[in-house]
Amino acid sequence: APLRKGGWTLVGAGLLLALVVVAALLGPALTDGYPFATKLVSAAKFVAYGCLVVAVPLIVRRGADALALLTAVTATAVAAAAVGVLQLIGLIGNLDETPAGRRMPSFLGYHDFAALAGVTLASAIAGIAVGWWRHQRPLLAVAAAAGVIGVIIAGSLANMAALAVGAVVALAAMAA
């Protein structure tokens, strides 16, 4: 029942996931030297992450559910950011022996670290936009700080661009 409201959105998402798989399967027929195994694994990961989107409306049905999810995401982001900072200054090693002072993978890898940081920061922005700041100030402040630190250390330019657009939308929502 919670998924019925998003019917067309889920249909579009399903079509996108199917298109990704079809493109990966057609790759060898369209291109010589196509790394089929690598692209198929990437497509499978994309589909797996896409299926996780369906879990959100099933898990988060009330404000308390969203708060529990935000708390868990924030705790993970704080740990990842702390490890990233320690890697950045050279106190601990990292997954691929990147020298200190460059973008760091934390314990997640570059892309997953950037995604976690971006989700955490976006969640903090959304929490502020919907008025949670009055009641959840410490959690939102920690989420925002961990998100900013993680986005910077992971070094994702796409993350920064998406967050800039999200911040503009959040400001517009707060102003309305």
Features:
single chain; globular; 176 residues
Verbal overview:
The chain is an all-alpha fold and 176 residues long. The chain contains 6 helices and no strands. The model has no long low-confidence stretch (mean pLDDT 84).
Offer a quick outline of the entry.
With 176 residues, the chain is mainly α. The chain has helices at residues 7-30, 36-59, 63-88, 110-129, 133-154, 157-175. 77% of the residues lie in helices and 0% in strands.
Draw up the topology in text.
Blueprint: H1 7-30, H2 36-59, H3 63-88, H4 110-129, H5 133-154, H6 157-175
Which structural class matches the secondary elements? mainly alpha
β content, as a range?
under 5%
Q: For the terminal residues, how far apart are their CA atoms?
A: 30 Å
CA-atom Rg in angstroms: 19 Å
Topology, number of strands: 0
Give start-end ranges of low-pLDDT stretches: none
The gross shape turns out to be globular
Main sheet properties: none
The percentage helix is over 70%
Order of helices and strands: HHHHHH
Taking all residues together, what is the mean pLDDT? 84
Query: Count of helices?
Result: 6
